[in-house]
Every structure is written in C-alpha cells, then in structure tokens.
Amino acid sequence: TQLLEQSPQFLSIQEGENLTVYCNSSSVFSSLQWYRQEPGEGPVLLVTVVTGGEVKKLKRLTFQFGDARKDSSLHITAAQPGDTGLYLCAGGSYNTDKLIFGTGTRLQVFP
Amino acid sequence: DTGVSQNPRHKITKRGQNVTFRCDPISEHNRLYWYRQTLGQGPEFLTYFQNEAQLEKSRLLSDRFSAERPKGSFSTLEIQRTEQGDSAMYLCASILTGMGTGELFFGEGSRLTVL
Lengths: 111, 115
Description:
The structure holds 2 protein chains of 2 kinds.
Chain A: E1 5-7, E2 10-14, E3 19-24, E4 31-37, E5 44-49, E6 55-58, E7 61-65, E8 71-76, E9 85-92, E10 99-101, E11 105-110
Parallel strand pairs in A: 2-11
Antiparallel strand pairs in A: 1-3, 3-8, 4-5, 4-9, 6-7, 7-8, 9-10, 9-11
Chain B: E1 5-7, E2 10-13, E3 19-24, E4 31-37, E5 44-50, E6 53-57, E7 65-68, E8 75-79, E9 88-95, E10 105-106, E11 110-114
Parallel strand pairs in B: 2-11
Antiparallel strand pairs in B: 1-3, 3-8, 4-5, 4-9, 5-6, 7-8, 9-10, 9-11
C-alpha cells in the first residue's frame, strides 16, 4: 500500500513567517501534486511536478520533488492569512490511475 | 458548465438507512473518481470510472457501497444500511485524460452524517 505522510500535521504561524510542509513516502511516484482545500470545498490543484529534483515556483510558494521521486516539499515565503487552509500532497502511481493523497497539513496564518 | 457538481451537499440520516449521492462531472471529462474524506484528513480513494467502466475499487469499499456511471456522464454512489462510521465527506472529481492538462477537478463534496 502506498502511503504519503505529511508533516507537520498542524501549523499555526504569524503573518510574514516562512514555513515548509513535507510529504514523504517509501514508494516511488510518477508525479506529485499539491492541493489546497478550504472548509466546505473540494481540494484545488496548486501544482504538478513530474521530474525528480524538479522545483516549481508559484508566487510565494516553492514546490520541490525529491530526486528519488519519493518525497516533496512545499515552502511558503512570507505567509499571509489567505494562505490558511488544508494542504494536501497527492502522488500519481505507475501501476494504477488513482491519485494517493497525503495525510494533510492544516495551516493557520494569523494576522 | 462551470465545474463538478455534487448533490446533495449535506445529508443527515439514521443508521440503517440507504443514501445516494450524485456527481455531475465537467461535461467532456472521461474519467471520474470518488473519494471519502474525514475531518482534517486527506481524501481516501474509493473507486473510479473511465467513461462508463468502473476500473478499480478500493478495499475500503464494502459490499454496502456501490457506484455507477451508466452513460459515462453523471455518477451515483449508494451506501446501503448506513453505519455511523460512514459519516464523512464524499468527494467526486473528474479529469480529461489523454488530451487534457492532467488536472483533477473536485466538486464541493457531499457531507454525510449518520446518527
């Protein structure tokens, strides 16, 4: 069974701080996606990374896919209250077409 | 068509009753997924369809759960003889495979509460 563990599980910070969320697995994934989910809504895709070692930047968010394609990180610079939400990583499998979601990191940014 | 639509958004039922959720995907999307999510956790895969064919079911899906996508468009997820452990958010997502961007679009979910 492929599992994606995210850390930390909860993160509560002040506006302006930097943070990193980690997504780790013992399995190799064909691709890695990051989603953000707000209460009462479905997850919304932020980014897809497909190449080992790939780094993508989306404004204040930086995403990295590990060289071995088993892990990923999301770094947010100068967090804002609008960044508050549940962050989910999700791995694409070589063997099936289903997306495996991580355990989630709940971020709260206070003004 | 503005996105994936799920109905009902909320369902409260008594233990032992049957419930059915409907998902209308983005119209040209050929693949449809069902996931279950409990509070603060990541979504768990339940099943998925490629057009009308159900290609994979999770072992989480007991015999009380059944899903259909009869014409390759909308899908239904039925839970028979509901149990309190079935209380969760049921998420539907669709994607256009082959020629699309690879982005999975989620609906807002159907929240089930079993009393």
